[in-house]
Amino acid sequence: QVQLVESGGGLVQPGGSLRLSCAGSVNIFSIYTMGWYRQAPGKQRELVATITSGGSTNYADFAKGRFTISRDNAKKTVYLQMNSLKPEDTAVYYCNARRFNDWWGQGTQVTVSS
């Protein structure tokens, strides 16, 4: 059983930055592959970035070079640093944990607007 709680979303101007956090309530956080996904109104959920237990990362094309996923296993937290934000980044961002099963957080709203 894994419980995930996202935080850090909010309103930011184009070109600005946000850092999202996802805290995992789980015994051994380090064994999970963690990911960030997002869903905009009227659109399907899409992968933003993942990071494995070994620290290997994978990014969607739109995120590469702008977003950075990282994890702190001691704090049982995964982060998504988002820079150079664009209006099209506006979405609800969800944290995901995967190991045999998938668990999802409740989501945090990111709005990029002037």
Percent strand: over 45%
Radius of gyration, in Å, reads 13 Å
Note poorly predicted spans.
none
DSSP strand tally: 11
Q: Main sheet, how many strands, which sense, barrel?
A: 7 strands, mixed
Helix residue percentage: under 10%
Shape summary: globular
Structural class: mainly beta
Helices and strands, in N-to-C order?
Answer: EEEEEEEEEEE
Tally of individual helices: 0
Give the N-to-C terminal Cα separation: 40 Å
Mean pLDDT, to the nearest integer, reads 97
Short characterization:
This protein is mainly β. The chain has strands at 3-7, 10-12, 18-25, 33-39, 46-51, 57-59, 67-72, 77-82, 91-99, 101-104, 108-112. The protein starts with a strand and ends with a strand.
Overview of the molecule:
This protein has 114 residues and is mainly beta. The protein has strands at residues 3-7, 10-12, 18-25, 33-39, 46-51, 57-59, 67-72, 77-82, 91-99, 101-104, 108-112. The strands form 2 sheets. Strands 2, 4, 5, 6, 9, 10 and 11 form a 7-stranded mixed sheet that branches. It has a 4-stranded antiparallel sheet with strand order 1-3-8-7, with no helix packed on it. It is globular and about 40 Å long.
Task: Describe the protein's topology.
Layout: E1 3-7, E2 10-12, E3 18-25, E4 33-39, E5 46-51, E6 57-59, E7 67-72, E8 77-82, E9 91-99, E10 101-104, E11 108-112
Parallel strand pairs: 2-11
Antiparallel strand pairs: 1-3, 3-8, 4-5, 4-9, 5-6, 7-8, 9-10, 9-11
